[in-house]
């Protein structure tokens, strides 16, 4: 019994390619959950991280909040929020967002805070407004690190969204959870493979974004 | 400067991570292709000799029944350990076969449907004979109790009203409405004969969608009550049927067959007094009792072990 035969059998079965339980629709669901959770987490983490990094204030508070959030078991939080709130997307988004905010917040804060003070001082000396300093000096220099925070958040969301299937959500986790209950290892291995592929695709996308968005001057250093 | 240091550090870290991932993948692939005698990566360890391992499936009633069996055996001086909440029958049957679990509360007809999808279920005695014929040679059923707990398709009150269905309606009456309904159940309900497969082949029901929940547990109960699903696989002894006014549809074709609570045991697991103890439990356990005990566990949130002990005592079994 070889893992590869499971993979082959799973992807070779045409029944796995259509319908609400087909690979395209499950893959799409997983991507949707990931994008939504990442967008919400970025909307929380980025502004706070930029602001605190720029002013240099609130670093300790961020460290405390971020570490506390990281210590929360996402699986327990998932089950709890479903029991408290009920079904649908919201209870599942809570643990995903809680999980994704700390890496974004902490790396953004650190990235902006550790920008070389020389160009920042120069910009301020030339009379640049604070918002200009932040967005035209600090953010471009800090961008590689900020992206790495977003990237690790995205990969974590991709992998954690898998367990959301335990509480009846769709996505690729369905194959893993259903396969375990149905004792259908093709499904388990096939689903796990798809999650791994999606995680790799996510990494590749962030690499490509980095190539495009990061200023050549910063990249060369 | 710091950024240079950081990026080079993160690059080495990436190489390290990639190497670890490759090694792990290689280990996984070779591990699984090394010609193990067992083809089940999830097979557990065998039970220790002289110890009775009572297992249970992943729903509240199974846990309760396992506690009842275990405590009844313990009262006879046997050494008992529990493995609770293991999973679905698809998993627990395998564990019974390889000896990791030696006693398991089962439902005779549901077990038959798992062992042989096409078996006709005409009477409780015939079901037990048929199960014994199909069982692994090392396993057997003890005496069935009159207590019965079947799978059933239940609708929530609003859906039943909307489609003019009552407790007198049958599954066949659902045919027209089914394509507009989402049905929920355990993940395994999707692939079982006593599940979507049978509902389609026996009653011609095709539903709009299937939502994987749990085996008649809190997720299913809540999803049906909140209309997240309009129909669901609900156990007939589920105390929430009465509480939430769910409408259970009749099953004239006997798709869900017989489901008398019956101990499934390994032949070598129990001495004579152990077999007698479990048969005595079966003789005393009826559906009404089971409903009452389920309500204590699921509605009053009592500890199943306490409920089991209290009932054994009141029934004079310990």
TrEMBL record, chain A:
- Print the keywords alphabetically: Membrane, Transmembrane, Transmembrane helix, Transport
Residue ranges occupied by any ABC transmembrane type-1 domain in the UniProt entry = 27-206
Q: Where are the transmembrane segments?
A: 31-53, 74-101, 157-177, 189-214
SUPFAM superfamilies given for it?
MetI-like
Localization (cell): Cell membrane; Membrane
One of its Pfam families is BPD_transp_1
Record's InterPro entries?
Answer: ABC_transp_perm/SBD, MetI-like, MetI-like_sf
Specify the protein's topology with respect to the membrane: Multi-pass membrane protein
Query: Per the similarity annotation, which family is this?
Result: Belongs to the binding-protein-dependent transport system permease family.
What protein name applies here? Osmoprotectant transport system permease protein
